[in-house]
Amino acid sequence: MNIRKISINEFKKRRFERSYISVYIVIRSISVENEQEIEVKNLCVIYGFTALGVRRIIAIYFENTNDNRFWLGVFEDLKARNLQNIMFLVTPQNKNIERCAKIIYNNIEIIRSPEDIMSAIDRYFSTKTSRTLEIQLKNLILAEDIEKCEENIELFKQQYLHNRLVLEVFKRQEDDIKKLYKYNYDIRKLLYQYYAIREIKRHINRLNERQPLQENIDDVIEHFTEYISSFERGLTYSKKGWVRLMNILYEIYPKKMEEYL
User: Fold this and answer.
1) Disulfide-capable partner of 70 in 45, 64, 94, 152 (CB 3.0 to 4.6 Å)?
2) Residue 194 and residue 114: Cα distance in Å, rounded?
3) How far apart are CA 45 and CA 70, in angstroms?
């Protein structure tokens, strides 16, 4: 089946659905060639789930780390393009993102990305080791409940009893793992989009393999337009599964859900 490729201009200007249940910020470093000089920039890909369960890539930016108002401008732009409500914002640990998001979306609930927690641990290890750690940490985040999580944590510590580096870096992140258990299993699965984020990261990594390298954000968006439509057509939830999740959220957040739906 042929899937229509979205244009750069269409992607930059399209209006959003009014309410998003969850929005995710993925940040990765890429190399950019500018006037024959290569510099490294943070690429930010923002995507989310609408209230109807449709998966959308919302925006792609180069982060301006020298501008304290950069993220304020990002969220202002999203709201100007009709994105009025965000229930959950899942983001790497970044006080500026959190501050600016709360200015524009007063009732937003901000969660440190499970992916960010994992990256803070496995970045110290070799590829082979980090893959094993990735699976183990994923299981810690998606345990059935906090009791099972704590049981798994103790098993994890026993396994790495003689690896002080693993235990030390894990200790720094342990509290943030446990904080995720204020949410039940179904909501944690929503917050931790393991496969979708891995797919986005894979496409970002390909940018560093391009020859010549990208020069500007339009080059990056052009790269992503090759797969945006197929990504958005991908099914993360069945209709039945999404309705079940909405009912769970409605029981916990009745006022928000009435407003968003």
Assistant:
1) 64
2) 9
3) 15
Domain assignment present for residue 3? The answer is no
Tell me the pLDDT of the chain averaged across its residues: 91
Within a domain: 118: yes
Cβ contact 107:40 at 8 Å? no
**How many CB atoms within 10 Å of residue 10?**
11
Q: By the 8 A CB rule, do 190 and 88 touch?
A: yes
Residues in the chain: 261
- Give the per-residue pLDDT at 213: 84
The number of distinct structural domains making up the chain is 1
In a domain, 151, yes or no: yes
Q: Residue 209 belongs to what domain range?
A: 8-260
pLDDT at 1 over 60: no
* Cα 36 from Cα 14, distance rounded (Å): 33
Q: Which residues, including other chains, have CB under 8 Å from residue 126's CB and lie 6 or more apart?
A: none
SS3 69: coil
Expressed in angstroms, the distance from the first to the final Cα of the chain is 32
> pLDDT tens digits, residue range 148-172?
999 999 999 999 899 898 899 999 9
Q: Are 40 and 103 in contact (CB under 8 A)?
A: no
